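Bumping my old thread because nobody answered last time. Still need a sequence for this structure:
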């Protein structure tokens, strides 16, 4: 059974995600949070296999929560976090991936693709919404001098790469 934590500040979004993911075989939602600070506490308490997290939230945003979580976890034991957001700006994409997110999905993702992405993230596979890939490639080829994205991923994630289409 795959253990999942949902993190989104919108009750309606969390409820919709729960409906989609609770209906999928072998997925157990073990926790939920409405902001990044609470997410870190829920993740530490429940030890999920994967987290599905929004970026823009009150109290603490998803990227800060990801950095906070990963600062307390060894590189080879990090909980995979898949970002699920409505915002596909270059800055959000790069910040999330540099912080160590294993995936970046848009909220326009179809339910069956979301279920597949959660499973892939739990298995250590990197995943991106198709609309994100061109932005990521453009940003990287533009000579972005920040630390390469691959250095932020755990070793297991570095070996596996999957693009959702």
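Sorry it took so long. Here it is:
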């Amino acid at each position: 059974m795959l253990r999942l934590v949902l993190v989104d500040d919108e009750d309606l979004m969390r409820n919709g995600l729960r409906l989609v993911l609770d209906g999928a075989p072998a997925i157990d939602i073990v926790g939920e949070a409405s902001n990044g600070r609470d997410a870190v506490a829920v993740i530490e308490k429940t030890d999920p296999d994967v987290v599905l997290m929004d970026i823009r939230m009150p109290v603490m945003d998803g990227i800060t929560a990801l950095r906070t979580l990963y600062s307390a976890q060894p590189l080879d034991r990090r909980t995979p976090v898949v970002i699920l957001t409505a915002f596909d700006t270059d800055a959000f994409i790069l910040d999330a991936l540099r912080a160590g997110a294993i995936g970046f999905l848009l909220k326009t993702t179809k339910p069956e693709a979301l279920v597949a992405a959660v499973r892939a993230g739990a298995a250590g596979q990197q995943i991106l919404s198709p609309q994100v890939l061109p932005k990521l490639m453009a940003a990287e080829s533009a000579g972005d001098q920040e630390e390469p994205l691959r250095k932020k991923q755990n070793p297991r994630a570095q070996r596996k790469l999957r693009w959702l289409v």
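DSSP finds seven helices and six strands in the chain. Let me know if any region looks off to you.
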